[in-house]
Structures are given as C-alpha cells and as structure tokens.
Design brief:
The chain contains 7 helices and no strands. By secondary structure, the protein is mainly α. It has one domain. Helix 4 runs antiparallel to helix 5, helix 5 packs across helix 7 and helix 6 crosses helix 7. The mean pLDDT is about 95.
C-alpha cells in the first residue's frame, strides 16, 4: 500500500515536471515514486495497485485525469482480466475514480 511519502513524492514529481527547467531537473529526485506506481500497475498485485491508485486520487494535490490517462489506463491495458471488475465497481461508487476513468483510453 502507498505511504503518504510515496503519494506526496509522486505528486511532487508531477508538479515539478510541469515547471521550468530548474524544476524539471529537480523532478528527477522524485522519479522513484513514478517508477513505483508504474511497477505496481504493471507487475505488482492488482489489489495493491488499486490501493495505490486510490491513495493517489485522494491526495490533496491529485489530478484525477493524470491518474486516469496514466497508471489507471496502464492497469486496464496490461491487466484487464485482473482489474476490470474491481475498477468498474470503484468507478460506479467513487466520483474520483469516475473522473479518472473518464480520462483513460485503455484501447
């Protein structure tokens, strides 16, 4: 499951990577969090990946569309059989998941 530090580092990486050159260079210090999320959705247990995505979506600095078009899309693209039912349930029940899913194109 994601720690607060991991979630904060993920969003810090995202924020810095959108900035000026100095900020983009600083974002490298937080790239490990992006790698952790990528590994979770492609190779880790699906239930842990879903918990991690939920943590990312609930962070105060969250951008649900970034989660949807990135790690959620990858989870559904690479592991559809394992993830589809749990994601569909969350999308029906949770507005943040619904917002994220609207930005995913797992095609």
């Amino acid at each position: 499951m994601a720690t607060n530090d991991e979630t904060e580092a993920y969003w810090t990486h995202y924020r810095l990577s959108q900035g000026d050159r100095r900020e983009r260079l600083l974002s490298d210090d937080y790239f490990w969090a992006w790698e952790d999320v990528d590994f979770a959705v492609t190779d880790g247990p699906v239930d842990e990946a879903v918990k991690l995505l939920d943590s990312l979506l609930r962070a105060p600095s969250a951008d649900p569309c970034y989660v949807g078009a990135g790690p959620l899309e990858n989870l559904l693209r690479y592991r559809p059989a394992e993830a589809a039912t749990v994601v569909a349930t969350l999308v029906r029940q949770e507005p943040l998941w619904r917002e994220a899913f609207a930005c995913a194109h797992p095609g």
